[in-house]
Write a structure and sequence with these properties.
- By secondary structure, the chain is of the alpha/beta class.
- It has three domains: 269 residues, Rossmann fold, CATH 3.40.50.1820; 119 residues, no CATH class; 44 residues, no CATH class.
- Helix content is 32%, strand content 13%.
- The protein contains 14 helices and twelve strands.
- The strands form two sheets. The protein has a ten-stranded mixed β-sheet with strand order 1-3-2-4-5-8-9-10-11-12, sandwiched between helices. Strands 6-7 form a two-stranded antiparallel ribbon.
- The longest helix is centred in the first third of the chain and has 30 residues.
- The N and C termini lie far apart (73 Å).
């Protein structure tokens, strides 16, 4: 019997090995299709290591950042082949979306100074493949309330997508520590410091805060504000590294990429490397393990209040992980989660998946919780009017508050990428502010025609890229802050990094 089991195990191992080799072969063959890699998909500018980041200060980081952008200019922009000098390439100086044309390049780290002495500081951390542009509106809100706003460009971002083929998540976390050190330096030992994180930036804010609970030398944030936080990712991301194995051979270098797309967005990469997915999984796995260990050891009492905003359907991160991994362990400290439901208008009944219609019910745990829960949803079925349904911490009674906004009849849900952008965002908004022009208006693009004719990624175009409920987010963040010291500017200023 033992021999039979051993023999069966050997055959099983052989079958699995053949299957994996076959998959890798298919992956290697598929990577050979299409155009060769472009320069922005092969050249990696130099960035500081975690040890260097921990040893430097904010001016040192800005200097290193400038060197990375200089490298992109000399090694990419100045050396483009004639076929790459097209109006849809953000790395071509003649393109309307070339960041060097703009009054301020929001790919870079920035500091927004308030009118007087800062009453506090906020560190804002963008998402994966993204840039500091994504949180600039919230940064301006904090500045209007007397906070100094520090927008961090996370290593590997803002330059070229190839930079994400080499970066590791500890690089991102070291840069987060640096930004928090700078925040404390600017406002002194007693002023409040908030952290605002979007997507991957939300994960970094949570990881940093967990570390601060265990290491007193780290500045503890006073509050976290999270938008579409990346607390968990899809199962594919866990094994994404396998998809890049053929890239170990130079002939199959394209296997290191999950998406290879034209780069027409001035403030976000369209191409997506395998390593980025792998690092996102490793970061979320580290958060999950640390949360479980600290919850078991009763070490989470120092966590600051967390206000998170999350769509119940999210194709980029695991929405349920926000509840299962994060909020299941927060202490009774005034935290709240705001969930954006799908549009319950009957016109979508036959189009939405059953899993989308039931997503909210699966996310909400039964019984009283240690945190406040708010659900933004239709006032009633087949009604465009919306309400905020709130359940206070420790209670089960739901209170409904009408909202002065409708659920747009052409939007069936929010998306992962929509939450931090107002509808009038000049790049991503459905009703863009025409006083600013970044060379392309992605929020209004709704093309129809034959597939394959456009350079646009139609999957991204179908996702709503701005948030019709953004005024609610802004109102909730505004309520966390002291009275405004200056009126918010009518137009976004072009800050100088310092």
């Amino acid at each position: 019997m033992v021999r039979v089991l051993i023999k069966l195990g050997k055959w099983t191992a052989i079958v699995v090995l053949v299957f994996l080799v076959s998959l890798l072969g298919i992956r290697a063959w598929d990577s050979q299709q299409g155009d060769p890699l472009a320069p922005w998909q092969t050249f990696v500018p130099d960035e500081l290591t975690p040890a260097q980041l921990d040893a430097t200060d904010w001016p040192g980081y800005l200097a290193a950042e400038q060197r990375a952008f200089d490298e992109v200019k000399t090694q990419i922009t100045d050396k483009l082949a004639p076929a790459q000098r097209v109006s849809s390439n953000r790395y071509f100086e003649g393109a309307p979306m070339y960041p060097g044309h703009f009054a301020h390049d929001w790919n870079r780290s920035y500091v927004l100074e308030p009118a007087g002495k800062p009453v506090g500081a906020v560190v804002l951390i963008h998402g994966l493949t993204d840039s500091p542009y994504s949180l600039r509106d919230i940064a301006e809100l904090y500045r209007a309330h007397g906070f100094v706003a520090i927008g961090l460009r996370v290593p590997g971002h803002g330059t070229v997508p190839a930079a994400l083929t080499k970066v590791d998540w500890p690089d991102w976390l070291a840069a987060t520590r640096l930004a928090m050190r700078e925040a404390r330096r600017r406002v002194g030992p007693d002023a409040p410091i908030h952290m605002v994180g979007y997507s991957n930036g939300g994960a970094l804010a949570v990881k940093y805060t967990l570390d601060a609970c265990e290491h007193n030398e780290l500045t503890m944030p006073t509050r976290l504000v999270l938008l579409s936080p990346m607390i968990g990712v899809t199962r594919f991301a866990r094994f994404a590294g396998l998809a890049g194995l053929p890239a170990m051979l130079p002939r199959f270098a394209k296997a290191a990429w999950l998406d290879l797309l034209p780069e027409y967005n001035p403030y976000k990469y369209n191409s997506f490397p395998v390593n980025a997915a792998r690092q996102s999984y490793l970061l979320t796995d580290a958060i999950r393990s640390q949360m479980l260990r600290m919850a078991h050891d009763k070490q989470l009492s120092r966590l600051p209040p967390i206000l998170a905003f999350q769509s119940v359907v999210d194709d980029t991160v695991s929405a349920s992980a926000v509840m299962r991994t994060l909020y299941a362990h927060v202490p009774a400290n005034g935290s709240e989660v705001v969930l954006f439901d799908v549009n319950r208008d009957h016109r979508f009944d036959t189009l939405l998946k059953a899993s989308s219609l039931t997503a909210l019910g699966r996310m909400l745990p039964a019984g009283p919780q240690a945190y406040r829960t708010t659900v933004i949803t239709n006032a009633a079925e087949n009604d465009d009017h919306t309400v905020a349904r709130t359940t206070e911490a420790g209670q089960t009674t739901v209170t409904s508050t009408p909202l002065p906004m409708l659920y747009p009849d052409d939007i069936f849900s929010l998306s992962h990428i929509a939450l931090p952008f107002p509808s009038n965002d000049p790049l991503y908004g459905t009703e863009p502010d025409m006083s600013e022009n970044f060379g392309i208006r992605l929020g209004t693009a709704a093309p129809r025609g034959e597939r394959g004719a456009l350079i646009l990624n139609l999957n991204d175009i179908l996702r709503v890229s701005s948030n019709p409920f953004y005024p609610y987010i802004r109102q909730r963040v505004d309520a966390l802050l002291p009275a405004e010291v200056t009126p918010p500017p009518v137009k976004m200023a072009a800050p100088q990094a310092n």
